[in-house]
Every structure is written in C-alpha cells, then in structure tokens.
Amino acid sequence: MNIATVSRVTETRWQAVVGDRIVGHGDVSQRPDGRRFVSIDVWRDEVFDRLATAILADLPTPLHTVVGEADFDLRSRWEQAGFTLERREWEYVLSTDPRETGLDALCPPTGVTFLRGGDVDEGLLHALDRAIREEVEATVGWQTMPAEVLPRPAGRTVGDPSKYTVAVRNGAYVGLVRVAPVPRRARVGLIAVRADHRRRGVGRALLAHTLGSLHRAGTASAWAEADESNTAALTLLESIGAQRTGSNLELVHH
Fold first, then answer.
1. For the sheet containing 5-8, what is the strand order?
2. Locate the N-acetyltransferase domain: which residues (predicted)?
3. Fold assignment, 5-88
4. What is the DSSP string of 170-196?
5. For residues 218 and 237, what is the distance between their CA atoms, to the nearest angstrom?
6. Phi/psi at 92 (5° precision)
7. Residue 151's pLDDT is what?
8. CATH code, 91-247
9. Along the chain (254 residues), what's the average pLDDT of each consecutive run of 10 residues?
C-alpha cells in the first residue's frame, strides 16, 4: 500500500496525498480565548497518525481537540497521538414551550427588561461580554464555557450582535444569552450574568424570555452545552426539564 505524503498547504490546513488523490486533511482554528483546536478528517485510517504527527511538529503546544465521548475509535487515535482528557461538556435538548419548561408564569425580576438584536447597543454589549469574561477567568476560567470555534479580530469576542438577547437593569447591561438559529432547533451557545446580579433570577428570566421568543417563532426545541463543572448552568438547564443527550470531551496535548 502506498504511503501518504503530508504537506502543509495553508497556515491552517494540512493535506495527505497518495499519488494524485487526497486521502485526508487536518485543520487548526483559534478560539476567541486564544486556544488552538485541531481536527483531522481522513479516508484511510492509517493516514490519521501521519497527519497528527505533521501537525504536532508544525504547531506549538498546547493544542486542543473535541471528540464525542461515544466515538471511542477517534478518541483512541488522539490519545495515541499524545492527547489527554481536559474536560467534559454535556449536551442537552430543551423544549421552548413554556408550559413544558415551567416558565410560563415566570416574571422578570423587578426593573429587568430585555433587548434583542437590532435594539442592542454594540458598545455596551462588547463591554458586558468583556466584563463577564474577566469574571469567569478570575474564577473557573473561560475554557469551561461553551465557545464556537471562530476566528475573531484581536479584542473582539462578540460575533454577530443579532444573535444576542441582553438583560438590562436600571439602564445597565447585566446579562446576555447568545442563540444561533438553525433549522428546526436553535443552539443556546452562551448564557451569562454579571457576578453582582447573580442569584436574583436574572439568568432564569433571560432564558425564559429567549425560549419563549423561539417558541412563538415556531422553533420547538433548542440545544445547549454545559461544562460538567458548571453546577449553576447544569442546575438551571435541568430545572426546566432539559434532557441530557450526550457529551463531548476536550482533549489537550501539552
């Protein structure tokens, strides 16, 4: 059997070729928090090791990757390449129907209102996002929060402001939720509240408002992820009947 030749074809992609056929590729993406995530897609199993070796030789560590916990073969390949378990993230499916979530009678805390999409002030939204990130980094670390693997210009961690709903109290932005609409099911990518406004029902009211809006728009369910160490997020999701459907593992190579 011919041995694949691996080469780096761009700054973010490696390609494995046998003769004139591409038999696999590897990619690297950088998250807003600076972590680099690698992925490998191959058509021949033996090509995985050659791509992993090439990527590890070209990039500084640490490097991260994500695998479904049920994908034992893929996890084993990454572990053979020297990656080890960093954290686990649970996946949930949740109904948007307030009668099923128990949020139909929930009223926002006194003085709290909500802004969506085009009504959100981008400058205040960026300031809120930065403040929340600083608070998270000072405690559990932002790496425990779900994050899309998308490049961002330096200093900009908010992607499309239209995906955000913001909780406002007395003119101040105190909480946010980010929802990415997809066919038939929306992704709740992030829900967070400023530290000095937690345990006042803001997060629960923000989620109730967001799910209610999705329900009225005809979206029956949403999905979300939460780090297994994020007790507050797990408690919130499970308190409204969210069903755990699987888990992803983040592996790291130091």
1. 5-8, 13-18, 21-30, 36-42, 63-68, 243-253, 84-95, 221-227, 185-193, 172-180, 164-169, 112-116
2. 115-254
3. Aminopeptidase (3.40.630)
4. TTEEEEEEEEE--TTEEEEEEEEE-GG
5. 21
6. -130, 150
7. 46
8. 3.40.630.30
9. 88 94 94 86 90 96 95 96 95 94 89 89 89 79 56 61 90 91 77 89 91 91 90 90 94 96
